[in-house]
TrEMBL record, chain A:
One of its GO terms (cellular component) is bacterial-type flagellum basal body, rod. This is Flagellar basal body rod protein FlgB. The gene is flgB. GO terms for biological process: bacterial-type flagellum-dependent swarming motility. Keywords: Bacterial flagellum, Cell projection, Cilium, Flagellum.
Automatic annotation (TrEMBL), chain B:
The lineage of its organism: Bacteria, Pseudomonadati, Pseudomonadota, Gammaproteobacteria, Lysobacterales. The basal body constitutes a major portion of the flagellar organelle and consists of four rings (L,P,S, and M) mounted on a central rod. The rod consists of about 26 subunits of FlgG in the distal portion, and FlgB, FlgC and FlgF are thought to build up the proximal portion of the rod with about 6 subunits each. Keywords: Bacterial flagellum, Cell projection, Cilium, Flagellum. PANTHER family: FLAGELLAR BASAL-BODY ROD PROTEIN FLGC (PTHR30435:SF2), FLAGELLAR PROTEIN (PTHR30435). GO terms for biological process: bacterial-type flagellum-dependent swarming motility. This is Flagellar basal-body rod protein FlgC.
Length: 132, 140
């Protein structure tokens, strides 16, 4: 399943997941806009995508059922945003910046969706010979 | 689809901000309340927000999805105003009544901030809903 998907849609299936993760992070930032001491975070997209699409990662062998799979810990790709204007309560969320990022992220997500849709349409054309 | 988590996060933000609006309404409504003693006088209330790490399930710490929780409601420790009103039926033995320590300007600022933050969370929910709709229509 994943092998077929990878060949058909290229990096866009992985990109979709990463955009989604980023949307989640930014939504968390916006929800915490008034929480004292909250530090705004963001996904390092380049790194996250490189991690998601690299297949030559060395896996840790787990010899016990209680071993924690390191790939389940996604903290490595989350970075902290550098605040432009420090606030008195230690909160580093800049609502306007987060909104702009959220909007841009949505457009990126839709772009990945369009690429996948185009690929499906192309396949359908190939299958039906342009009759469908 | 983990996009549902965004609804949780934005929803927690909306809940927190609406509670903040509630306390502002209570404070403004009681701005002119008076009391017979300094202890029972109305004190301005303010919610205490904190970040909550959501969905720590199955041993997988899912960072990045951070909602808001209300830790509690604090009462302002500012001094209450005492007024000499011997004719007031609830005045104490010395003829003083005690007014609330609500600052209407603070409350209005809080109200605007809370309603803007609430709107932001609604917008996040709307955009996410549209994106999910588009994802469902994939391939059509």
């Amino acid at each position: 399943m994943s092998q077929i998907n990878d060949n058909l849609f290229g990096m866009h299936t992985q990109a979709l997941g990463t955009w989604q993760k980023r949307a989640e992070t930014i939504a968390g930032n916006l929800a915490n806009a008034d929480t004292p001491g909250y530090l705004a975070r963001d996904v390092d997209f380049r790194k996250a995508l490189a991690d998601a699409s690299s297949s030559d990662k060395l896996a840790l062998s787990s010899t016990n059922a209680n071993h924690i799979d390191p790939s389940s810990l996604t903290t490595a790709n989350l970075a902290y945003r550098v605040p432009m204007q420090p606030t008195m309560d230690g909160n580093t969320v800049d609502t306007q910046v987060e909104q702009a990022n959220f909007a841009a992220n949505s457009v990126h997500y839709q772009a990945s969706l369009s690429f996948i849709t185009a690929q499906i349409r192309m396949l359908r054309t190939a299958i039906t010979g342009g009759q469908g | 689809m983990s996009m549902f988590k965004i609804f949780d996060v934005a929803g927690s933000g909306m809940a927190a901000q609406s509670l903040r609006l509630n306390t502002v309404a209570s404070n403004l409504a009681n701005a002119d309340s008076v009391s017979g003693s300094a202890d029972t006088a109305y004190r301005a209330r303010e919610p205490l927000f904190a970040t909550v790490q959501r969905s720590v399930s199955g041993g997988k710490a899912e960072e990045g999805t951070q909602g808001v929780q209300v830790l509690g409601i604090t009462e302002s420790q500012a001094a209450v105003e005492s007024r000499y009103e011997p004719g007031n039926p609830i005045a104490d033995a010395d003829g003083y009544v005690y007014a609330s320590n609500v600052n209407p300007v603070d409350e209005l600022v809080n109200m605007i901030s809370a309603s803007r933050s609430y709107q932001n969370n609604v917008e996040v929910m709307n955009s996410t809903r549209q994106l999910m709709q588009k994802t469902l229509d994939l391939g059509k």
